[in-house]
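Listing S7. Sequence submitted for prediction.
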Amino acid sequence: AMLMHYRLMLLKQDGQLDADFAHIKQLNERYDTARAAFEAIPRDANGDAFVLRIESARAATHSADQQLDAALKAGDYPGAVAILLEQVRPHGAAWTQALAEYTDYQSQLTADSLAQYRDVEQRTRLLILVVGALGLLLGCLTAWAINRSLEARSPACSRWLKTSPRAGSIPWWPTRGRMK
């Protein structure tokens, strides 16, 4: 954005440099705020290398910007154009390239993290289904075993339930020796 504003300043050449420099200062402050938030994010050694590269490119661009500012303030528009094209533009392109490469790196890390998350999610879902099915099977087997043991160990209770008028209110109790 600053490079575009410098180009606009050179095209206009209207002598309103104070307003233009104030706008550039505002752009720098916005970038510095975003950079401070960005640098607070934890990163690995590769991220640190990218940040150093970005900072180096920013410093080179800032140095060229200061030369351009001096030429503009002196009214040397042909010199300012030369500085813009020969110094600011290449340094700004390197800075933008460093930012783009770091963005690509972050996008790759995000994609890798998403793939790992989905893998864990799939394994967890499968584990939950298996544990649920085993729990259901164990519950059914336990109920069947309890039913069989009650019939086998307590024939009097079984006879009473078969002849009792309340036996029909227990739908799962076998009335003829077999489960319904």
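Caption to Listing S7: primary sequence and predicted structure tokens for the chain studied. Residues 77-153 form the longest helix (77 residues). The chain has a mean pLDDT of 81.
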